[in-house]
What does this fold into?
Amino acid sequence: MKRIFVFFVLIFMSCQNKNSNGINSKVINKDFPLYRFDKYKNKFCVEYNGDTLIELYRGTRRETYIEKKTLKNHYYEKAIYTKKCKVVTNGYWFSEAKIGVHNYYDEKGSLKSQIDFDDGFIITINELRKIILRKYKIDINNYADNNIEIYKEKEIFNSSYIIKIRVGTYDKIIKINGNTGKIISAEELDIGEG
It folds into this structure.
């Protein structure tokens, strides 16, 4: 009976320490020694649970930020918080490509703006995967295991995907039209022996 009571007390305390954006400020303060970070300007990285990674880093204007990445199938959700656990931005990513709608918040945590990073792209990540698999026999869903980076490039009239695949001592760079799925260019760059 005591165990059940303690369990419910722990759950209640944990829920009270979470802000509306799902990050627990007590865990952050416990896992990230902020005073050491401020003193030594290090970057701390802590695995929060099986599919979530939390990282503390310094921004361009010397502010401290907390980045939380949660794996969702082959995508990951990334949210950035201030040191006081207020959300700054959140959205989904596939490798290095922002996908879908990303939300941006003001200093009070209220939604300020949204940007749809799929706007201008007819070809989806799934369709891109099929094109690369068919043509190059490489599954981009395993990008973390196979040294693959995927980027989106958007110009006024064109949108394209850039896929960089590390193969031994060279990088294969493939550029695919984001509207038609046609390969614009494919080149190999020798990176030498590292």
Q: What stands out?
A: The radius of gyration is 20 Å. Residues 1-21 have pLDDT under 50 and may be disordered.
